[in-house]
Design brief:
By secondary structure, the chain is an alpha/beta fold. Helices cover 45% and strands 21% of the residues. Strand 12, helix 7 and strand 13 form a beta-alpha-beta unit. Helix 1 crosses helix 10 and helix 6 runs parallel beside helix 7.
Length: 402
Amino acid sequence: MEKIKMQTPLVEMDGDEMTRVIWKMLKEILITPYVELNSEYYDLGLESRNDTDDKITVDSANAAKKYGVAVKCATITPNAQRMSEFKLKQMYKSPNATIRAILDGTVFRAPIIVNGITPLIPGWKKPITIARHAYGDVYKNAEHKMPKGSKAELLLTDKDGNQTKTLIHDFSGSAGIVQGQHNLDSSIESFARSCFNFGLDTKQSVWFSTKDTISKQYDHHFKDIFEAIFEKEYKAQFNSAGIEYFYTLIDDAVARVIRSDGGYIWACKNYDGDVMSDMVATAFGSLGMMSSVLVSPDGVYEYEAAHGTVTRHYYKHLKGEETSTNSVATIFAWSGALKKRGELDKNEALVKFAENLEKATIKTIEDGVMTGDLFTISNLNNKRKVNTEEFLKEVGSRLMNG
C-alpha cells in the first residue's frame, strides 16, 4: 500500500517517561506504516531541556507558530525531587506553560466517548468541552505571610508615578496570608476569540462563567470583554451557525452542567478550568480518555494528551514489568494533529486516515479490548484486559482491516 504523503510538516514534540515509550510504539505501529510522516522533531524530554537551558521548548513553540499544527507528548514539570534525580541546572517551568504563553493559546479538553464506558452523570450523552484560560490569576500570583499587627495594601503606580493605595486587610487582630493576582486585557481578549472561533469551528455553543457578583471588578472585567467581543465580532456568525453564547455565574453553570446532556464548550477562568476539566474527565470515565488541544486566536493548533507522563507505569516498565497504560488520549493527539494538517493542506487522504484511526481506537474498546483503567469501569460483558503494546496492536489490526 502506498503511504499517504504530507505536503507541510507538523511539529512533533517528544516527551518523558511512559508517554515517551508509548509515543515511539504508537508511531511505529499506527502512523509510519500508513503515512510518510513529515514532521519537524523537537525532543522536550527533561534531559534535552536541561542540555539546552530550555531553549528547545521555546524553539518548538516558535516552530508551531510557523507551521500551524503541532502534536505534543506529555512532559515532566520538575520539582525539588526531579532537580536531584535529573541533576538539573534549574527548576524549569512547565513546558505547557511556556508554549501556551508563546502561542497565546486556550486549552480545549473534551472526553472521548465510547459505548461500554458509562458517564457517572447518567444524563451526559454528548461531550462537554472545557476551555481553560491558560494565563494569570492564581498561577502567576504573588503571596505573602502576614504577621499579626501588619497591614496589607494594594499599591498602584501609574506611568507618571502617581500612586493609589487600597487597604486589603488590617491584620491587627491575627496573623494571616495575602495573595495578589493579575490578568491582561490582551490575554482575556485572545481567550474570548479562541473560544468563539472554536465554537464556530466545532458548531458548538459557548458558555462562559465567572463570579462577577462577588468580584465586581476583576471577574466582571472578564465578562465585559467576552460580551463586547461577541457582540461586535461573532454574534452574526453564531446566529448563522445556529449556536449561542451564554453567560452565567460559575455556581449556576455547575448546576446547569450537571443537569445538561452535554454538547457545548464551557469557557472557564484558569483555576476553574483546571479543576473542572479533571471533574469532567473523571465523570466521563478517565483522564486517559480526554483529548486536549491548545488553540491560539490566530489559528495555531497544538494537540496533546490531557494526562501526565504516567510515572508509576514507567518505573514498572524500567524493571521489565508489564504495564497496561491507556494510550487513547495520545492516539487522539496524533489523529487530531494529522486531521488538522490534512484540513489545512486540503489533503483528504490524511484527513480520512486520521478519522479511521479514531474509529479503529473506539472500535477496539467497544469490542471489549482495553487497558486496565478502562477494564475496571467498563460495563461490557465480554471484555479483555491487554497490556500497553497489545492495545496498540489491536488498534492497528482494526485500522488495517477497516
